[in-house]
């Protein structure tokens, strides 16, 4: 092989796929052995982690993915997708529009929450007690990110986000069976209690806090929490985009046409 050919082959290096004419293998597994034998959540795990999960791990992982698929048109990602669907773009453009709305504020809370959990876990690994580690992590959070702690509280679901208790129960059951350690469930609930004490009222753990518990329990790095949420929410974005296409409508904006934005002229003295 010439030096140029060798350099070209090395331009993109991957351990994810081995492909040549007549051959496709993901992480060393021939595609023929995966089709019909692994679930889509197992495939996501394989592609991102490099190995296949146990059945119990896959079930817990799948539960987190199922829980985040949709939150209705009031969610910015879904609203944007539905509006895009009325603008004459294709379904792939509709989905891209919705996914591109998933940023630090809407869609990124799971990653931020996982970072917080891992910070507490690191302190505990160094010998700090749970409650002390939580208080220190929350103080650091508030000094650097403000009073709103990602993963806790919800503008719509009060006092309970119905998704979180279900997921946390599954984590507890998985911990009892030895599938996961249960450490991050304890950390998440300790943070929830600490926030409640500081505000003088209970606060809900939301979907981001609960799925972050699961992703941390399963060993996913914090940044993947956001990517996995994007995969999950893509199901809702696809569904709403397709539904809007069937309903029709053109250039459907965020408000009915008989409601106009408030015109507020600029104060010339400002």
UniProtKB/TrEMBL annotation:
Transmembrane segments: none annotated. Pfam families: Citrate_synt. It is an enzyme of class 2 (transferase). CDD domains: CCL_ACL-C. One of its GO terms (molecular function) is citrate synthase activity. Pathway: Carbohydrate metabolism; tricarboxylic acid cycle; isocitrate from oxaloacetate: step 1/2. InterPro entries: Citrate_synth-like_lrg_a-sub, Citrate_synth-like_sm_a-sub, Citrate_synthase, Citrate_synthase_sf. One of its GO terms (biological process) is carbohydrate metabolic process. It comes from the Bacteria. Residues 246-270 are annotated as: Disordered. Belongs to the citrate synthase family. This is citrate synthase (unknown stereospecificity). The lineage of its organism: Bacteria, Pseudomonadati, Pseudomonadota, Alphaproteobacteria, Rhodobacterales.
